[in-house]
Amino acid sequence: MISNDLIFDIGLHRGLDAQYYLNKGFRVIGLEAVPALVAECRKKLHSHGGRLVIVNKALYHEAGKTVTFYTVPGKDDWGSLNQQVAEKAVEKATPITVETVDLTWLFDRFGVPRYIKCDIEGADIIFREQLIRETRRPTFVSIEVNDGHEGAALAECGYEVAQIVNQWFHPFRQPPNPAREGKFVAAQFTGETSGLFGLELPATSWQPIDEIDAITRRWKELRAIDEQLAPGWLDVHAATRAALV
Question: Could you tell me the pTM of the whole model?
Answer without folding.
Answer: 0.96
